[in-house]
Amino acid sequence: xxxxxxxxxxxxxxxxxxxxxxxxxxxxxxxxxxxxxxxxxxxxxxxxxxxxxxxxxxxxxxxxxxxxxxxxxxxxxxxxxxxxxxxxxxxxxxxxxxxxxxxxxxxxxxxxxxxxxxxxxxxxxxxxxxxxxxxxxxxxxxxxxxxxxxxxxxxxxxxxxxxxxxxxxxxxxxxxxxxxxxxxxxxxxxxxxxxxxx
Length: 198
Prior knowledge:
198 residues
């Protein structure tokens, strides 16, 4: 029996293969984009206790007070001692506050770390505004170095308009330092040596 349409079968196979290839490429693209999109979503909504970033102090300070507790953690593999200089502070909503953490590199070599952060309860992330924070940049510590690291923040007065936050009396600001790997530096070519190109 003769195959009535060999051209149609080949064309169909090519369309299916191209569709599968496009689907795989799209899924790979979404996987790479998911982390920055998730970070953007968390910063925009305060989801999961992600704090906000502010460039300036708010226009007014309210009489309502909230206790802000400070928490410090270090992931195993990073030989640092990390702790808040005070365990908590009472702040007025809208008041700009500077708190300090102390970090000591207990290794006999230079080490690198970077802090992640969040607040709890998670619903408060939308109202916790940071003006300055050591968590924004990678930290490089010399052997035995001890450093004071400030965080400047305020609780947004908009929190007072959120009926779900009426019973809020305590916010916990938590940091966790993670070890960072040193990026390999390109090897410099000795002067006068040929590059190997023809």
